[in-house]
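Quick one, probably user error.
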């Protein structure tokens, strides 16, 4: 897309030079994303609005970028800046029997009361503190049919990160059944400031 737009992109040095581009925090396997971000280095100045126009002309409809602006070359990486993410997990409760939503909500309350989730990473047991990694209380929203949405907001930090599928796995452990996931979407990403959460384009 960037090549087709004929933008003067910078390349890395070394034996195998590559386009200097960096993406935001990685998505888990099977997770879709809205409002994803990337950093691109250019070798000369082109107005940000012109860059956006050229990119939008060179890509397919569903991948058209919405915003563009310049940042300091000394700015923190996107992975370091974007520490807050909201997810929407669509689950099918039709196979779970009557009262499935009530059991899921009860399991969420039990997890929050416990305050920790234990996971195995790199063959080692690790304890995730929900106080530092979970933002707010996950919400269960019943849809018009058998589909239910679990909304969850998480924080990544030096203490680790909480993937929504890990949280769902803890729910499954408590209700003692597999919960079929139809869609998992990272909806938004934010920069955390002393005043709250902010769109990265506003910081």
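Nope, works fine. Designed sequence:
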């Amino acid at each position: 897309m960037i090549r087709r737009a004929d933008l003067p992109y910078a390349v890395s040095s070394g034996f195998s030079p590559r386009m200097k581009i960096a993406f935001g925090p990685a998505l888990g396997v099977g997770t879709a994303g809205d409002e994803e971000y990337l950093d691109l280095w250019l070798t000369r100045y082109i107005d940000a609005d012109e860059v956006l126009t050229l990119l939008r002309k060179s890509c397919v409809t569903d991948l058209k970028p919405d915003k563009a602006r310049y940042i300091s070359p000394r700015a923190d990486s996107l992975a370091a800046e974007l520490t807050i993410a909201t997810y929407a997990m669509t689950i099918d409760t039709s196979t779970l029997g009557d009262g499935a939503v009530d059991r899921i909500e009860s399991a969420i309350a039990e997890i929050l009361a416990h305050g920790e989730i234990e996971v195995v990473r790199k063959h080692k047991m690790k304890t995730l503190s929900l106080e530092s990694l979970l933002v707010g209380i996950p919400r269960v929203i019943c849809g018009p049919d058998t589909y239910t949405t679990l909304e969850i907001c998480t924080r990544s930090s030096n203490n680790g990160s909480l993937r929504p599928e890990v949280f769902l796995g803890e729910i499954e452990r408590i209700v003692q059944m597999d919960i079929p996931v139809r869609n998992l979407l990272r909806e938004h990403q934010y920069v955390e400031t002393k005043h709250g959460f902010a769109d990265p384009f506003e910081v």
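DSSP finds five helices and ten strands in the chain.
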